[in-house]
Amino acid sequence: MSEANLRKIYLLLPFSALFIWGSILTAAFLHSGFNWPDNLLSDLAVSDVSYIFTTGLVGGGILGLLFTIFFIRYNRGVLLDLVNGVLLLATNISYTLAGLIPINAGFLHYFFAFLAFALSIFICGVYSLFFIVEKRYVKLGVYGLIILLISLLIWVFIKLPGLAVTETAVGILVASWFSILGVNLYKDDR
User: Fold this and answer.
1) Are the C-beta atoms of 178 and 14 separated by less than 8 Å?
2) Mind listing the pLDDT tens digit of every residue in the chain (190 residues)?
3) I need a labelling partner for 135 at 20 to 30 A (CA). Which of 105, 150, 160, 163 fits?
4) What pTM did the predictor assign?
5) Which long-range contacts (CB under 8 A, 24 or more apart) does 73-77 make?
6) Can you tell me the distance from the alpha carbon of 132 to that of 152, in angstroms, rounded to the nearest whole number?
7) How far apart are CA 28 and CA 132, in angstroms?
8) In the chain, what is the straight-line distance between the N-terminal and C-terminal CA atoms, in Å?
């Protein structure tokens, strides 16, 4: 693979995040019975728009896996990048499995959905601290810590009207962080 094409691998990160959240939001808006305060996002997996929802989780997870494989391959010399790569691998496998395992399978679907969500927030927080300490992508690091603080506030202290609203608010913030990271990695690898 040429160097120019190799650099484009970094763009899989924002495409993965946009694909996942674009599909989730499209499914939510197209499903006539979806009620933001009363439903979970996972309820979309057993609706008339389930194919949009599950395609987003599976497709976005696979795009994220492709990014992660190359990220690990080319950054395995740096311990933090290797650890982050393994966490990203688990995150993207979890997104894919949350899409493949229907909600009516019970615990397994919820486990992988929660794991994908929790690991995404964790990676955002840890890497943001690293960026600030290393004075690399400091603005993105500060943004990530703000996202971490907002996520904590939303989940623990501020009760938004419904779990789907909470999931979406935090998910879009974290997805924006990953998207900006992918674009920064792409721009810096010139």
Assistant:
1) yes
2) 566 667 788 899 999 999 999 999 999 999 989 999 899 899 998 889 999 999 999 999 999 999 999 888 887 777 878 888 899 999 999 999 999 998 888 889 999 999 999 999 999 999 999 999 999 899 999 999 999 999 889 888 887 787 888 899 999 999 999 999 999 988 887 6
3) 150
4) 0.90
5) 74/6
6) 20
7) 36
8) 16
Place of tokens 């057993």: 46
Find the radius of gyration of the CA atoms of the chain: 17
